[in-house]
Amino acid sequence: MTPLPIPLPATRAAATARLAAFLPRAGMTYAARRNEDLPGHPHVSGLAPYIRHRLLTEAEAIDATLRAHPNGAEKFLAELWWRTYWKGWLELRPGIWSAYRQGLAEAMNRLQVEAGLRQQWEAACKGETGIDGFDHWAQELAATGYLHNHARMWFASIWIFTLRLPWELGADFFLRHLIDGDPASNTLSWRWVGGLHTPGKTYAATPDNIAKNTGGRFRPTGLARDCAPLRMSPHPAPRPAPEGEVPSPGLPTALLLHEEDLAGDGFPHLPEGTPLLFLLTTARRSGLAVNPLVHAFVDDAVTDTARLHGLPDAPRFTDESLVALADHLAAQGTRQLVTPYAPIGPTAAALQRLAPLLDDRGIHLARLIRDHDAQAWPHATHGFFRFREAVMG
Ligand SMILES: Cc1cc2nc3c(=O)[nH]c(=O)nc-3n(C[C@H](O)[C@H](O)[C@H](O)COP(=O)(O)OP(=O)(O)OC[C@H]3O[C@@H](n4cnc5c(N)ncnc54)[C@H](O)[C@@H]3O)c2cc1C
Fold first, then answer.
1. Among 58, 89, 180, which residue has the most ligand 1 atoms within 8 Å of its CB, making it the best to mutate?
2. CA distances from 234 to 195, 231, 312 (A)
3. Rounded-to-integer distance, Cα 302 and Cα 313, Å
């Protein structure tokens, strides 16, 4: 694939063009070479920033892949389903997200009082540890907003087992720099590397594997050999998958789009001329400053979405202006606000706080779950392979 340009064009047109350009390589080539982290990332799609914000939906990417490869592309399809699996898994266990936020707050407090830890953390974030590869990935991430999947795995493994830094600080470092930073995929992948997802199983980065898959660019020394799992509590029992709300017909309705779902495919199908507004929570991905590349991508994606809806001046609100959002709707005579369901994360939390403000003003909030999620999430009860059987057959 052509390398991801900086800044990355955040438009629906760029997303669909990238998918179309990648599809010829989504079959055998992807299966054989997707693990190679080479300059320009030629063997992976680079679609995550688009799919994460649903400028392009998972369902669209899966359908297009099936059409282009009626007999194959199993590996690429499975990777696309991983995103849905992680979202569903977290959606059934919201306590895992709260525990991450709690663990992060505790680790941030430790940084205030443990000077040694703070220095190590700063060196890791700046890419100044002296560990071959690791320093490059830290700087690549901050400079581009993207890392190859294998680099993410090596980086997380070295962070946890060699540098012995709290995993929550690493997950936060990713979440504030990755343009595709996603509460479910990120938190659960870090937990998986640290042995908190599959009991007894961790991911160990090794010099040979790194050298082999980076074309010999990196061969770090001194990596931890003992990668014993972090101490884990048992997973909470899964709750039932959410069902979302049903909009009432006939009410004066507005559409709220947000960065979990910019409705690249036009969802939800409301009459033309339905007032549109946006909710942005990008700054809440971390308690620290989020990379400007992430903000720029989301802002541009919102601009593109508004333009595609023919409403370039659609107002934007943040989770700090929820009262203003509710007042705006009340002043317009809105009685119902329809929005795509936001999976666990800052947007869902903001919608949770918005609901009573709307209620006070006689406005009904309808969070609509896409068929793709409604059908798949209930299967995210155990491991990926059981999920995959259920959704891919
Ligand atoms: C520690 C760690 C943290 C991660 N954090 C994130 C994150 O915050 N946001 C995020 O979107 N992904 C995350 N991933 C998953 C994965 O690394 C990225 O989705 C992938 O690298 C994106 O690049 P791509 O689009 O070129 O992937 P491709 O290899 O081209 O894959 C195609 C698509 O499949 C999906 N996908 C592929 N691998 C995974 C995976 N392991 N989990 C979930 N979806 C996947 C993505 O939508 C991706 O765009 C993380 C992985 C690890 C190991």
1. 180
2. 12, 10, 48
3. 11
Q: Nearest to residue 263, comparing CAs of 308, 314, 293, 297? A: 308
Tokens of 38: 């080479």
Q: What is the rounded average pLDDT of the residues 152-180?
A: 98
Lowest mean pLDDT among 53-57, 241-245, 319-323, 363-367: 241-245
Question: Residue 269 pLDDT > 90, yes or no?
Answer: no
Q: Which atom of ligand 1 is nearest to the CA of 41?
A: 26
Instruction: Decide: 276 in ligand 1 pocket, CB within 6 A.
Output: no
Residue 293's pLDDT band (boundaries 50, 70, 90)? very high
Nearest CA-CA partner of 188 in 262, 287, 84, 289:
84
- Domains of the chain, earliest start first: 12-91 (no CATH), 94-213 (1.10.579.10), 253-368 (3.40.50.620)
Tell me the CA–centroid distance for residue 149 and ligand 1, in Å: 6
Pocket test for ligand 1, best of 149, 165, 174, 191 (most atoms within 8 A of CB): 149
Return the number of other C-beta atoms located less than 10 Å from residue 317's C-beta. Answer: 21
336 CA to centre of ligand 1 in angstroms: 35
pLDDT at position 270: 84
Tell me the pLDDT band of 197, cut-offs 50, 70 and 90. Answer: very high
Residue 3 has a pLDDT of 77
Q: Please report, for the chain, how many H helices and E strands are present, in that order.
A: 17, 5
List of residues 6+ apart from 237 with CB closer than 8 A: none
Give the number of other Cβ atoms within 10 Å of residue 315's Cβ: 14
The answer to whether 187 and 97 have CB atoms below 8 angstroms apart is: yes
